[in-house]
Design brief:
This protein is of the alpha/beta class. Helix content is 32%, strand content 20%. It has a single domain (2-272), classed as Rossmann fold. It is globular. Bound molecules: S-adenosylmethionine.
Length: 276
């Protein structure tokens, strides 16, 4: 356990370093959510009491982290993970007064317009946010001037001729290939920048790559391997071979503008358009 603890302590993430390694490894869903969240928060201004949506929160580790580290109130929303298990984890972490777990689908959120001071999403937004209309949809739940902060796995640059390189496409020695069909939602920083800048709902868009993000991902995969707590076979070998040529973490932040685009996921739109 001491070895694992050392593997999870990174000088660039002092807040994450104080969380139990076993807790981080038992609740991981791939990359280290706390490291990604801590990096995201460097680019955001979270203040005590703010209402924050943690969208695609998985096992609610980042929701607990946000509540503890910044004193914010968190609505922890996820599709695959049950609210009951997340509530158990929230209570065990003593965060029951500030984290509310919910099972919900990202296109069918029940919140009031302008309810949140911030929406964050760690390693999840690429599952639903690549659609041009999504930022306008999620934007409606954030107050004017409120914040958006997303970290997604993505590409440091486009593949040459659109072809996935062999070291990502071919099976590693454990038999698993890194690149699966779902990875086609791994996009470049340029893609996210253009997607958000194209929306009138947000302003002050900033997008960047995590320095040495591939190395952090690889090192966390090695820690998972060592702990035996992997849900899937490790991707460490492919990430190490890639060495940041393509695989990266991308951070996007923005502020809610005064303008609103139409909610194209509103099921009553048909009626508003006179349909029967
Ligand atoms: C790779 S996991 C990351 C979870 C967590 N943020 C973390 O970093 O540990 C991606 C999460 O996105 C959530 N997700 C995917 N599609 C979703 C959708 N349409 N609506 C809500 N959540 C979704 C899944 O339920 C899953 O828990």
């Amino acid at each position: 356990m001491e070895d694992l603890k050392e593997m999870l302590i990174k000088p660039e993430f002092p807040r994450s370093a104080s969380y139990d390694p076993d807790w981080q490894l038992s609740n991981q869903m791939g990359p280290n959510a706390l490291w990604l969240c801590e990096w995201l928060c460097e680019a955001m201004e979270l203040k005590p009491g703010m209402r924050v949506l943690d969208l695609g929160c998985g096992k609610a580790m980042t929701s607990i982290f946000l509540a503890r580290e910044f004193g914010v109130r968190v609505w922890a929303a996820d599709l695959w993970m049950s609210q009951d298990n997340n509530w158990k984890r929230v209570k065990e972490a003593g965060a029951q007064d500030s984290v509310c777990p919910l099972r919900m689908e990202a296109h069918a959120l029940p919140f009031a317009s302008g309810f949140f001071d911030a929406v964050i999403s760690i390693d999840a937004y690429h599952y639903f946010g690549t659609d041009e209309h999504y930022i306008d949809y999620i934007g409606q739940f954030v107050r004017e001037g409120g914040q958006f902060g997303v970290v997604v796995p993505g590409l440091a640059r486009e593949f040459e001729n659109g072809i996935v390189p062999a070291h990502l496409a071919e099976p590693q020695s454990n038999g698993k290939a890194f690149w699966e069909p779902a990875c086609r939602s791994f996009k470049t920083a340029g893609f996210w920048n253009a997607l958000w800048k194209g929306s009138a709902s947000v302003q002050d868009v900033k997008v960047d790559l995590q320095p040495d993000g591939w190395r952090l991902w690889m090192e966390f995969e090695r820690a998972i391997e060592k702990s035996g707590k992997g849900i899937f076979p490790s991707d460490a070998e492919a990430i190490e071979k890639d060495a940041g040529q393509y695989i990266a973490f991308i951070r996007a932040t923005a502020r809610r503008s005064a303008l609103s685009e139409m909610n194209l996921y509103d099921p009553t739109l048909g009626l508003q358009c006179g349909a029967e």
